[in-house]
Design a protein that fits this description.
101 residues, mainly alpha, 3 helices, globular
């Protein structure tokens, strides 16, 4: 095995009670099957259904911030995969807690 950095998901997440979770009840995905947001293959094609739901969501920004703050290294949150979330915040130089407004 090479000495390179592994791109493995983090196994430790902060508990939900450390975050404002009131937005969850307003999410467009409430009641949708969970497996839509956690596909077997992390490609745009396999996440199309989840992304379509996120496009219609009024709390997508809160979801995106939550997934970045926790951090969650799997699934579609805020309409993005983990690598997309990391790139987005790096590119825009925004900390996950900064609001859009």
């Amino acid at each position: 095995m090479s000495g390179g950095k592994r791109n493995a998901p983090r196994m430790i997440m902060k508990p939900d009670f450390d975050f404002d979770m009131e937005w969850v009840d307003q999410a467009a995905c409430a009641g949708a099957p969970t497996e839509i947001f956690f596909p077997n293959y992390h490609t745009r094609e396999s996440t199309a259904q989840a992304r379509d739901i996120c496009k219609k969501c009024g709390v997508v920004w809160e979801c995106l911030k939550y997934a970045t703050e926790v951090p969650i290294d799997f699934g579609v949150w805020g309409g993005m995969l983990p690598s997309e979330r990391r790139r987005y915040f790096r590119k825009n130089k925004l900390p996950p807690t900064q609001s859009r407004g």
